[in-house]
Predict the 3D structure of the following.
Amino acid sequence: MRITFLGTGTAHGVPFIACTCAVCTSKDPRNKRMRSSVYVEYDGRGVLIDATPDLRTQALAYGIQRVDAILLTHSHADHIHGLDDVRIFNFVQKATIPLYGSKPVLKDVKTRFSYFFKKQPGWKPQVELKEVNGYFDLFGKTVKPVVVNHGSQPILGYRIDDFAYLTDCKSLPQESKHKLQGLDILVLNALRRKEHDTHLSLDEAIALIEELCPRRAFITHMSHDFDHEALCKELPAYIRPAYDGLVL
């Protein structure tokens, strides 16, 4: 399985608009962060986790040639507002793309992207909504949804084999912690250094990683609080900050 980080930034991305801090003006490309998403490849298939407003740029930057399925974690703008760009994959692949998410997320998709589902002329995305309410098969692999608390809002992370992707996490129910045992790779968010109501801080993320004990962990959904090189020196060796374009 091959995992490409398409984006590792917050809803604002990095650099922030109108910010002149050291990270936002850094020349280190690892400090340039598009909105958070990953692309998972196996057995000739490509699976997108979240469709950010940067999807077109991400696909061109990292050579995405196909999208066979999309898994949505939740319906905040920075995670779904690139969905219109999937229509090019419909055209290239000549196929409808299955779109997985919780019932509330799919309801939001139908509301915000209502034109997808209307019988009217025009080139528009073709997606088949698939409600996630338990484990499901995706091209021969079992996908295990994991409930994540985004503040008080329950959203989804996903485990595929020994890889798990959790973003916009503030805490985990105990049942979810059980589902995340024995991981090779855990991807987890850390928004900033100070505590936040709906996202893990860096210290909280490290504590959760230490509790879950994956072999390796990668931090994503990072703000301009973090300089990549400085954070590498600060973290234990088995925890690394991810960066846009990182391939595992």
Summary: The chain is about 20% helix and 25% strand. The CA atoms of residues 206 and 239 lie 8 Å apart. Helices lie at 55-61, 77-80, 87-93, 103-112, 174-179, 202-212, 228-234.
